[in-house]
Automatic annotation (TrEMBL):
Residues 42-98 form the Glutaminase EF-hand domain. Pfam families: Ank_2 (PF12796), EF-hand_14 (PF17959), Glutaminase (PF04960). GO terms for biological process: glutamate biosynthetic process; L-glutamine catabolic process. Its EC number is 3.5.1.2. It catalyses: L-glutamine + H2O = L-glutamate + NH4(+). This is glutaminase. Coiled coil: none annotated. PANTHER family: GLUTAMINASE. The lineage of its organism: Eukaryota, Metazoa, Chordata, Craniata, Vertebrata. It comes from Triplophysa tibetana. ANK repeats lie at residues 319-342. Residues 1-23 are annotated as: Disordered.
Length: 379
């Protein structure tokens, strides 16, 4: 259900209505729009290589090799082989396929089973609120509630189940359709329930080992949600004494341990962790300087790397000049094409003197840049 279908709307908190903005974006409406529309890392990576809504696997991996990654690196072996197979069958890879990793019998249908209880609970909280729902369903014993609305016999694939998990990990926003399926408060309640009562009698031990919300079923399915990171579904029918999938539980524990996804994996000066949840990001000033310097030098590889690390393509310096202004004045056509077509740079941004990127190209007599920028009528 989406918000347009009559689902009860939840008032946003004051800090959600007025998010804090970087210093260089204050007072600039164009930059404000770019900041609000910031995309997730997977979308930025896809758009950096996409052409016509699809990514060519050969071009993608050639860019990886040129950045210094070793071709025999075992960490990308599976990704490389899967993308090559997909390209051979489809010609290129689309956005939804680029975001996913599916292994094993992912296309085989499996029964949702008890996993549907958590989903029904989330929908109930979304429509009626947690206070009303908890008058009938206990906060820790919700899984024992017999509801005629459960979908225990519904069949799904691991790929579609992973989309459900990713929606919960994304705060109720479906990553495939962009629809707000559940409200953030309902997602918070659902994940809390999954964390305290999702793995049957093993729930406390599982929470101790992983700290991530999960829900299992006797069909061997495990739905795992790592908030803000990923969502996945495992299906392996072999069950343990707690009626959980043996391999599913083991996989989740190894995943959390390997990538330091535990909520209490704290990095200190005495213990360095390989954290994929916390990125060491430079200050806003250094980010802007690096982006503008890469545009000035015509270095597409470095510019792509900075944007993938979270830099804003529409960020401006103290003169209001963006990377597109710099590239246009220097005549770096490849940088201009990358910024406009892949990074969605705003051609209408004006510097402190009121000049757009097109006007900068005209001022510096950069004919190729002028011809390209004139294709965009808004410039």
């Amino acid at each position: 259900m989406s918000a347009s279908n009559g689902v009860k709307q939840t008032a946003l908190e004051p800090d959600k209505l007025n998010p804090s903005l970087p210093w260089q974006n204050s007072g600039r409406q164009e930059a404000l729009q770019g900041y609000i529309k910031k995309k997730v890392a997977a979308d930025v990576l896809f758009d950096s290589f996409a052409s016509g809504g699809r990514v060519n696997a050969n071009q993608f991996f050639e860019a990886l090799w040129s950045s210094g990654i070793i071709r025999t690196d075992p960490r990308i072996k599976d990704c490389y082989s899967l993308m090559r197979k997909l390209q051979e069958s489809d010609g290129a890879v689309d956005r939804s396929t680029f975001h996913r990793l599916s292994l094993g019998d992912w296309a085989e249908p499996c029964v949702l089973g008890e996993i549907s209880w958590a989903l029904i609970y989330g929908l109930a909280v979304d429509q009626h609120g947690s206070d009303y729902v908890h008058r009938f369903v206990g906060m820790e014993e919700y899984s024992k509630y017999e509801s005629p609305f459960t979908l225990t016999k519904q069949e799904v694939t691991c790929e579609s189940g992973a989309a459900l998990a990713a929606t919960l990990a994304n705060g109720g926003l479906c990553p495939l359709s962009g629809d707000q399926v559940l409200s953030p408060p309902a997602v918070r309640c659902t994940l809390s329930m999954m964390q305290v009562a999702g793995m049957n009698d093993y729930s406390r031990a599982f929470h101790f080992r992983t700290s991530v919300p999960a829900k299992s079923s006797q069909s061997g399915v495990v739905l795992i949600v790592i908030p803000g990171v990923l969502g996945l579904m495992c299906w392996s029918p072999g069950l343990d004494s707690n009626m959980n999938s043996c391999r599913g539980v083991h996989f989740c524990e190894e995943l959390v341990s390997t990538f330091q996804l535990h909520s209490f994996d704290i990095e200190t000066s005495f213990r360095q962790t390989l954290s994929y949840r916390q990125w060491k990001v430079e200050s806003e000033g250094y980010q802007i300087m690096n982006v503008l310097l890469a545009a000035y030098r015509g270095d597409v590889v470095s510019l792509r790397r900075y944007l993938l690390s979270g830099a804003d393509a529409n960020a401006v310096d103290y003169d209001g000049r963006s990377a597109l202004h710099v590239a246009a004045s220097e005549g770096h056509l490849d940088i201009i094409k990358f910024l406009v077509e892949n990074a969605c740079a705003n051609c209408t941004l004006k510097d402190r003197w009121g000049n757009t990127a097109l006007q900068e190209a005209v001022r510096c007599n950069q004919d190729p840049a002028i011809q390209f920028l004139r294709k965009y009528t808004d410039c």
